[in-house]
C-alpha cells in the first residue's frame, strides 16, 4: 500500500537527517522532494499546494531550526499534516436512532459497490446488527444474482424484485420489508454507469428522496487516483454524499485518492477495502495511515486484525498446551493458518514499525509456504504429528512421497518446529496472555 510514496518520502527525509542543523534553504530543498513525491503519487494539485505550504511554514519555525533533532521534528510535522488532510479521526457509520438505518451505496460501474455492500453488511453483522441487502441495480446483467451470491457467502438475506424495473420502488419496498421483519440495517446496492451521467444521477436523486437514507456512501476505486477524486467531487455535488469507501487499497502503490478525497470534497473516508475476501474491509484511520506512509508502521491495525482472526478460546487452549509442553505439529499448523487470516505476510510486515519497505521489494515472501506445510503435516500419522521425535529416515521418505514434497522440505519443517518448541519451553509455567498482552499471535 502506497509503496511508491513511502519510498519517495523516505528519500526526502534522508536529506534532512544528513544534516545536523537545518537552514531555511535545506528545508526548501527537502520540501521540493516531498512536493514531487506527492505529485507523482497522483495527489490532487490543490492538496499538494496546501500541504507543502503548511509543512514549509511550520518547518522553518524556531522549534525546528533550533531543535537538537530537526529532522525528527519535520517527520512529526509531515505526519500531523497528513492526518489533517485525511480527516483527523476515524468517522464511524452513522446509526439512525429509529431503525432501520438505511445506507445507500453509489458509484461508477466496476468500483466494487456490490462486493462492498456485502463486506459492509458482514462487518456490521459482527457488531450485532441485523443487515438486509436490497438489490436496486436493475440494469447490469446478473447484478441481482451477484448480490445474492455474496449475500449468501456472508449469510445476510437479500431483498430483490426481479420483475420490477423501478429501482426507486424496489428501494422503498426493501425498507418496508426490513421494518416488518425487524432488520435494523438496510444496504441499498444501486446501479452504476461507466461515467457520471444525468440518467444515473436522476435515479439516485429520486431514490434518495424516497428512501431518506441515513448514509450515502460513495464507493470508488483508489487505484484510479485523480479520477477517483473527480468522481467523488461530482457525486458529492449532485447527491451530497456522507462518506466514501475506497476499494483496492491493498494494491494502490500511489495513494493519490486517499490523500485527496477528504480535502477536495470535505466528506470523510469511512472504510477501505484491503483485499478481495469479503471480510477484508476496515474502518479508515487517518493517523494510522499517516504513520505507515512515513515508515512508522501501523501496530494498532495489526492488533485489530490479530484480535479479529484469533479465537479467544483457542488462544487459551494454546496457552495451556504451551505451559504443559504438549505443543504438537497440528497446533503449529493451526497457528499459521490463523495468521493467514490476517492478510498476506507482505501486508503484515509493512505494518511493523521501522520495517524497511524498500527491502521488502526484493524479499521472497512465499505465501504458499503454509499450504506446503499443511500438506506435509497431513501426510503424517497421528503419532507422528503428536511425537515428531519418532520420525526416522524411512518415515520422512514416506511423508515426502505422500504429499509430493522433498525429504529436504520435511526436514526443514521439523527443524522449524523444534526451534519454536524450544523457544516456547522457556515460557512454560508462565501466563502467555500476560507475556504477549492482548495479541494472540501464532508461535
Largest sheet: 8 strands, mixed
Question: How many domain regions?
Answer: 3
Contiguous uncertain segments of 5+ residues: 357-365, 429-443
- The first-level CATH class of the largest domain is given as Alpha Beta
Spatial sequence of strands, sheet with the most strands: 3-2-4-1-5-6-7-8
Summarize model confidence as the mean pLDDT: 81
**Percent range for helical residues?**
55-70%
Rounded radius of gyration (Å) = 26 Å
Question: In CATH terms, what is the architecture of the largest domain?
Answer: 3-Layer(aba) Sandwich
| SS field, number of helical segments | 22
Q: Going by CATH, what is the homologous superfamily of the largest domain?
A: P-loop containing nucleotide triphosphate hydrolases
Task: Tell how many strands the DSSP assignment holds.
Answer: 8
In percent terms, what proportion of residues is strand? 5-15%
Silhouette: flat
Q: Which structural class do you get from the secondary structure elements?
A: alpha/beta
What name does CATH use for the topology of the largest domain? Rossmann fold
Termini distance?
A: 26 Å
Give the SSE order as H and E letters: HHHHHEHEHEHEHEHEHEEHHHHHHHHHHH
Overall description:
- The structure is a single chain.
- With 443 residues, the protein is α/β, with parallel strands linked by helices.
- The chain has three domains: 3-86, SRP54, nucleotide-binding domain (Four Helix Bundle (Hemerythrin (Met), subunit A)), CATH 1.20.120.140; 101-296, Rossmann fold (3-Layer(aba) Sandwich), CATH 3.40.50.300; 303-436, Orthogonal Bundle (434 Repressor (Amino-terminal Domain)).
- The chain is built from 22 helices and eight strands.
- The chain has helices at residues 3-17, 24-40, 45-59, 62-65, 70-86, 113-126, 143-153, 167-180, 198-211, 226-239, 256-265, 286-293, 299-309, 312-323, 329-341, 345-350, 357-362, 369-378, 382-386, 393-403, 407-425, 432-436, and strands spanning 101-106, 131-135, 158-159, 185-189, 215-221, 243-247, 269-273, 281-283.
- It has an eight-stranded mixed β-sheet with strand order 3-2-4-1-5-6-7-8, sandwiched between helices.
- Strand 2 (131-135), helix 7 (143-153) and strand 3 form a beta-alpha-beta unit.
- The protein is flat, with a radius of gyration of 26 Å.
